[in-house]
Amino acid sequence: MVLAAPESRAGGKMMPFPIFDAFSRFGFRRFLRFFAFRLAPILLLPGLSMSNENAPHARPSIPSPAGLRELPPDGGEKWNRLVFEQSPYLLQHAANPVDWWPWGEAAFEAARAQDKPVFLSVGYSTCHWCHVMERESFEDEEVAALLNEHMIAIKVDREERPDIDHVYMTVTQAMTGSGGWPMTAVMTPDKKPFFAGTYYPKESQWGRPGMTDLVPALGRAWKEDREKVLRSANQIAEAIADLGNSRAGAMPNGEVLEHALDDYKRSYDRAHGGFGGGRNKFPVPHNLSLLLRIHARTGNDEARAMVEHTLQQMRLGGIWDHVGHGFHRYSTDEIWLLPHFEKMLYDQALHAIAYSEAYQLTGNEEYARVVRAIFDYVLRDMTAPGGGFYSAEDADSEGVEGKFYVWTREEVAEVLGAEDAELFQTLFNIEKEGNFSEEATGRRTGESIPHLKKPLGELAASMKMTPEALAEKAEALRGKLFEHREARVHPYKDDKILTDWNGLMIAALARGGMALGEEKYVHAAEKAANFILTDLRGKDGRLLKRARNGEAGLPAHLEDYAFIVWGLLDLYEATFDVRYLQEAVTLTDVMIEHYADETGGGFFQTADDGEVLLTRAKDAYDGAIPSGNGVAVCNLARLAHLTGEEKYDRLARGTAAAFGTALAEQPTGHSQMLIGIDLLLGPATEVVLAGNADDPVLREMAGHVRRAFLPRTVLVHRPEGDEAPILGLAKFTRAQTPVKGRAVGYICRNFACELPARTVDEFRERLKNAITVNAD
After folding, report:
1. H or E element: which one contains 25?
2. Which of 101, 128, 578, 674 is most buried (most C-beta within 10 Å)?
3. Helix or strand or coil: residue 424?
């Protein structure tokens, strides 16, 4: 069925918009299956122009807790129901004239009682186009009146409810061939969608229906063509029910890593680094981590070269904040110059891991400097007083995307003085006409994004300076500009603390602290972990999803368990505090109990006792964030070697096999799971250090392991005595004891250990011999 093409306000015909029985049931299922495994690292709104005039304006302040208690349940005249929520994204819409509801049974009951369809809008607080659609439509009295008349409107924060977002974004992708946020779906009161899309302007334009045409047309279809609407909705609901079924195959062998390498080679940008074609360049750090493991396994130098070139080009480009540090979300060009300026916590974590691993492998100090700079930014701007980490910083400030980050030559000269300004402008390419263009018009604004065309070391010679002197001078100038920039209006900060993203940052800080030998980063990881384990946990011991303003809540998902366990395992190896390993085992067992698919293998995104949606999704495809199933395989494989428990190895292999067909068809779309498969394929090494953790010999042995890139090695500490807690977790370490009270190191393969190494030099040599055994 296709709705009649509405008349535009200018009197012309607009393109029709379908309700989705335009697809045959078979064709629709094929589309769903296709897009379920091919979601892009980030979904865009193609063909739209940037519009600063529609940027968000100042919103009224949310009432105090006492003021909230005085409001009626619907928010009263000034507010809607979202005013009682904790999500910063929902609170941004709390004063809209749209009669918004939060997701919940009350909203769907209202839809049934009023016989209206449900208008679902999904986004997140730092989403630029979410701001645009709010300004154009959701703050507009005319659009709000239409929505309130024809529909029950629900707002969802995709970062708090990724399960809802996953289901309806998959439908959006399948129906339109693209996706993005804000994501829009219209559904029946029993949650079955019959229309989906992304951003819609107020008025119909660009061949895209506007809200003033779309909402009444959908309302009429609901009233006048109910039978066809329900038939479409039922077909869609039946099709997406298949999403919980993975396509099982055999546990992959080493060929899948070879195929992945071939795919990376084909899509590699040899000029600028990174992968894939198109106008935008998306960093996917877990691709780089996989390539480093392929290099470690095979010795393939091209795998390593692709990683190093990409890391270097990203660090030089405008996607890196050269003044305040940290990575922006992605580049809107192929040369990493013009970023989408929002900063996400997960990007900082995953980039820090990739640069840490590259530093471990190469010893290149430039990678270490990037890791430190990322952590400096996160600990300065993204860390809550209790130790958890905030979610994101917006791309916009003062209603303009990127305004906080760009510079004119005049402003640089005002801050630095003429001579130093000339040096900075030459180094960081602050151009007279500017290099920053309005996306809508292509007009240069006179503002520039600082970036480097070559590393400072290469630029030093042309300036007749030593690399050290130039680096010192550049850092001093950067510091002055940073202090000046701090006085600008800062981008909005999403200050909710998400369990899964915090797990990634805990892993990054622990791994970076080990690689750099800097305990302050490990301590920051510990503080965050202790916060999560204390404040984001229910009385039943299970994890919660989000904390904000001292309030924790929402059901946890697979990613929350998998990512926190990842962080805890890295923390254990960084500290030898057995509590972190105990918690990792406990949470993994909870994950297995409530999320495992005992029939088809792998893990569902939602718990067995969670809210029932149209489907219980299960997938392993990586996006900007690694998949929960991919991280679960990595964790289970590590736990198998850390504890000697065969059940974890069995579950890891079963999960990999559950997605065997998808892995074979598109290995590079499952890089995180392939990282786990690399460990499962082995050979793996268990390093057991026996003795007092403060013994200088043991500390030096541990430091050697922690600083090296050893992706198929786990590290265990076995204290002296028969009552050590580690013996209850890793029974195989009972025989690995100190020798005559002295610390020693055991190198083990499949829990069969060599004679103990008594000196650091002997330990290093034995470890070197163990890890250079041909992996094939």
Report:
1. helix 25-36
2. 674
3. helix
Chain position carrying tokens 């998959």: 170
What is the C-alpha separation between 572 and 363, in angstroms, rounded?
A: 24
- Alpha helices in 245-344, H assignment, sequence order: 255-267, 285-298, 301-316
Contacts of 383 (CB under 8 A, 6+ apart): 389, 390, 524
Give CA separation, 324 vs 282, 375, 428, 480, in Å.
21, 11, 14, 11
SS3 719: coil
Nearest CA-CA partner of 4 in 179, 221, 154, 210: 221
Q: How far apart are CA 720 and CA 736, in angstroms?
A: 9
Encoded tokens for 721: 């005595």
**Contact assessment for residue 413 and residue 514, using Cβ atoms and an 8 Å cutoff:** no
Distance between CA atoms of residues 561 and 591, nearest Å: 6
How far is the C-alpha of 342 from the C-alpha of 142, rounded, in Å? 31
Instruction: Give 542's contacts (C-beta < 8 A, 6+ positions apart).
Output: 556, 590, 594
Please state, in angstroms and rounded to a whole number, the distance separating the CA atoms of residues 456 and 462.
10
37 pLDDT band, cuts 50/70/90, is: very low
For 338-479, where are the E strands, in sequence order?
339-340, 343-344, 392-393, 396-397, 400-401
Where do we find the tokens 């292509």?
442
Per-residue model confidence as pLDDT tens digits over 364-418: 999 999 999 999 999 999 999 999 999 999 999 988 889 999 999 999 999 999 9
DSSP secondary-structure letter at 541?
S
Best CA proximity match to 168, nearest among 195, 205, 206: 195
457 DSSP assignment: H
As to burial, measured by CB atoms within 10 angstroms (0-12 exposed, 13-18 middle, 19+ buried), residue 73 is: exposed
- Residue 610: per-residue pLDDT: 93
Q: What is d(CA 119, CA 146) in angstroms, rounded to the nearest whole number?
A: 11
pTM, to two decimals: 0.92
3-state helix, strand, coil in the chain (%, to 5): 50, 10, 40
Q: Which residue from 340, 35, 11 is spatially nearest to 196, judged by alpha carbons?
A: 35
Predicted confidence (pLDDT) per residue in 142-157, tens digit = 999 999 999 999 999 9
Q: Give the chain's length.
A: 776
CB-count burial class (<10 Å; 0-12, 13-18, 19+) for 489: exposed
In whole angstroms, what is the distance from residue 388 CA to residue 527 CA? 8
Task: Determine the Cα–Cα distance for residues 322 and 311; give it in Å rounded to an integer.
Answer: 15
